[in-house]
Amino acid sequence: YLVMTKRTKKVGITGKFGTRYGSSLRKIIKKFEHKQRAKYCCPRCGKTSVKRIAVGIWKCKGCVTTFAGGAWELSTTLAVTAKTTMNRLRRLREDAQAAQKTEVTDVKKEQKTSKKARK
Length: 119
Fold this sequence. Notes:
Shape: rod-shaped
Radius of gyration: 28 Å
């Protein structure tokens, strides 16, 4: 029977380029193409079924949701940084509003107790 042989030892997905473009550039391309063709975890349903459709367009086969993302990866480092910053600022704002509400209720309680003491 026929046995398939291993076609490439080191070059992997960049074997299509042959000896062209130099080894360093082929290694860089290999890294990007592995990221591009990998399956990612869906931020909505949690399945590892998000694949790249086109540049910056990613689709989950599990929940059939389309996402906008990076060209090579689902989420870029800049997008992750922006998202965490927005969440941190939102949390700070909510904490400040909650603290302000407790201050207002404390002031109202003090006013009520002072009115009772006057009577």
